[in-house]
Design goal:
CATH architecture of the largest domain: Alpha-Beta Complex
Oligomer: single chain
CATH class of the largest domain: Alpha Beta
Bound molecules: zinc ion
Strand content: 25-35%
Number of strands: 9
Shape: elongated
CATH superfamily of the largest domain: Nucleoside Triphosphate Pyrophosphohydrolase
CATH topology of the largest domain: Nucleoside Triphosphate Pyrophosphohydrolase
Strand order of the largest sheet: 6-4-8-7
Order of helices and strands: EEEEEEHEEEHH
Helix content: 10-25%
């Protein structure tokens, strides 16, 4: 492994509790592991209905809106941008729910709950076949069991139960 700044060969430096971390002596810089980040969002309207989408050509199960974080973007900005791009909806609130590591793509999926006052979709025809609102109890059956979207919707249903909605 080489330093991405000066090209010197990296050594390992023992850091308390972190273990051995690649280190460049010339730049005095530690190279912590880089993590790929994406967000996945449960978008709901004021009636607690959940937005599920079908990506182009994948009609068997429905999914939640998700996307990779762009460079210099925050997770919350990504949630707002992806929802606007994919279904043309402006959100008024965005709260963290949970995160899941997705091994197949080596990405950490960060789950959010996003809220909107809008109901009409303006979908991106290049990416989506459709988008619709579903009552929470109906939504869960349309998502592949065991997927990250499923886990998030399950968690959201528990939140509603606790709040007695
Ligand atoms: Zn260096």
């Amino acid at each position: 492994m080489y330093c991405t700044i000066c090209g010197s060969m990296l050594e390992f430096k023992s850091i308390d509790k972190e273990g051995d971390i690649p280190f460049c002596r010339d730049c005095n810089k530690l190279f912590f592991p880089k993590v790929n980040l994406a967000m996945i969002a449960i978008l709901t309207n004021m009636k607690n209905q959940i937005c599920l989408i079908n990506q182009k050509g994948s009609n068997e199960y429905k999914v939640l809106i998700a996307g990779y974080i762009k460079s210099r973007e925050t997770l919350e900005e990504c949630v707002k941008r992806e929802i606007l791009e994919e279904v043309g909806i402006d959100i008024i609130q965005c709260d963290y729910l949970n995160s899941h590591y997705y091994e197949k793509s080596d990405v950490l999926m960060v789950g959010y709950h996003a809220l909107t006052k809008q109901y009409d979709f303006k979908i991106d025809d290049n990416e989506l076949d459709n988008a619709n609102w579903y009552d929470p109890s109906d939504a869960i059956g349309r998502i592949r069991e065991g997927s990250i979207a499923y886990l998030l919707v399950e968690q959201y249903l528990n939140v509603l139960k606790i709040k007695n909605v």
